[in-house]
Amino acid sequence: MNDRIITDISNYIFVSDMPEKVDAIFLPGGSHPEQPEYAAELYRKGYTKWLIPSGSISVKRDKWPGVRAKADIYNGDYRSDCEFFTDVLMKNGVPADAIIEENKSGHTRDNAFLSRKIADEKGIKIKTALIVCKAFHARRCLMLYQMAFPNVAIKVCPVHCYNITKDNWYKSEQGIDRVLGELTRCGSQFIGDIKEYLLQ
Known about the structure:
There is one protein chain. It is built from seven helices and four strands. By secondary structure, the protein is an alpha/beta fold. A four-stranded parallel beta sheet has the order 2-1-3-4, sandwiched between helices. The longest helix has 16 residues. The chain is globular, with a radius of gyration of 16 Å.
C-alpha cells in the first residue's frame, strides 16, 4: 500500500482548524447530534453570535431519515435536518434568537448558497465563520461555503461521525467508500462553479 496516496488524500479531505471567535457558525445538514452539540459548546464558550443550521431532507430520500444517535435525548418529530439541529442547539443552551434557520436545502451546495440567501435577507453581516461538519465532509463543505461567501474568512471545525477519521478511513470499506466518494464529488460537482469562481 502506498502511504503517500493515503497521506495526500487524508490531508486534502480532512480539513481541520482550531476554533476561533467568529461572526457565525455554519451547520450543513445531517442527522448526527455531534455537529450541533459541538456548535452549541462553541456558542456557550463565546465563539460566535449566530448559528446557521441548514437542511431539509436529502434529495436522495423522500423523508427525513431519523436521528442517528442519542434518540432518547433528541426525540422530537423532526421533519428536516434544520429542525433536528435547531432542537439539539436549544437543548444545549443556545437561545432561539441566536439561530438563523435554513430549511429548504436538499444537498451540500444548497446548504451553502441558501444559507447565504437567508443571511442576506435577515441583514446578518458575516466577515468570519466556522463550519461544523462531519470530518470526511470537510473539504467539500469548505469549497462550497467559500464560493457562497467569497469575502468571508472561513475555517472548519469538524466532528467525527460513523467512526471515520483521518487516521482510520482507509481501514474499513465504509471509510474508503465515504472518503473516495467525497474525493470524486470534490471534482465532479464543481466543474461549472470552479470555472465561474476562477474567472470572476
